[in-house]
Design goal:
It contains 2 helices and 15 strands. The protein is mainly β. It folds into 2 domains: 5-38; 46-173, Rieske Iron-sulfur Protein, CATH 2.102.10.10. A hairpin with a 2-residue loop joins strand 4 and strand 5. The longest helix is centred in the N-terminal third of the chain and has 18 residues, at 21-38. It is globular, with a radius of gyration of 20 Å. The N and C termini lie far apart (53 Å).
C-alpha cells in the first residue's frame, strides 16, 4: 500500500508520482546505508559478514557445484542465494534467507553461529535454531559429494518442520 499520488501538471513533473513521507525516508535510509558500505564504513555488525564469497563452479540444471571447503567456515554464493557451511567433517547448503522473514543471514564467526540481523534469530553451524523470533531451523538444500565437490540441488529445499527426515539427511559427511 502506498500513499503516492500523481503530481499536478503545473509542478514541473507531469506524470511523476509523489511518494509518501515514509517512502522518502526509507529511500533516504537505504541510500545512506549503501553509501556507507561503498566507502567502507559499514554499520556495526559488519564483522559478522561471511568469510568468503563464492560462485558455483558448474551448473547442471538446478544443481550447482562447489569445491569442498578446505576448512571450517561459511561461504556464500550470492547469485544463487546459497550458504555453504563446513563444521568438522560435515558440510551443509542453506538458503541465504532467514526462515522468519526472508532477511539475508550473516555468519558471526566470533560466536560460531548464524544470525539474522533483522530480528536477531540465532542458529548453530548446522542450521539448527537456537533462539529468536524464527520458529524453525534454517532451510537446507539437498547435497551430495561428487569427487572433491559438493553438488547442491537448488530445486530441493527442505524445511525442518515440514520435511524433517529429508532436512536431517541434507548433509555431506567428509571422509
Amino acid at each position: 500500500m502506498t500513499d503516492s499520488k500523481p503530481s499536478s501538471p503545473g509542478d514541473g513533473c507531469a506524470g511523476c508520482t509523489i511518494g509518501s513521507r515514509r517512502e522518502f525516508l526509507l529511500d533516504a535510509l537505504r541510500a545512506s546505508a549503501a553509501a556507507l558500505v561503498a566507502i567502507g564504513m559499514a554499520p556495526s555488525g559488519a564483522e559478522a559478514m561471511p568469510l568468503r564469497w563464492i560462485s558455483a563452479l558448474a551448473s547442471k540444471g538446478e544443481e550447482k557445484t562447489y569445491p569442498v571447503p578446505a576448512t571450517d567456515g561459511v561461504q556464500i554464493d550470492k547469485d544463487n542465494e546459497v550458504i555453504l557451511a563446513r563444521n568438522g567433517k560435515s558440510v551443509w547448503a542453506f538458503a541465504l534467507a532467514c526462515p522468519h522473514q526472508n532477511t539475508a543471514l550473516r555468519w558471526d564467526a566470533g560466536n560460531n553461529r548464524f544470525q539474522c540481523p533483522k530480528h536477531k534469530s540465532k542458529y548453530r553451524p548446522d542450521g539448527t535454531f537456537i533462539e529468536g523470533r524464527a520458529t524453525r531451523s534454517m532451510d537446507r538444500y539437498a547435497v551430495k559429494l561428487t569427487g572433491n565437490n559438493v553438488a547442491v540441488d537448488i530445486d530441493k529445499l527442505y524445511q525442518e518442520d515440514t520435511d524433517n527426515a529429508l532436512w536431517q539427511h541434507a548433509v555431506v559427511t567428509l571422509p
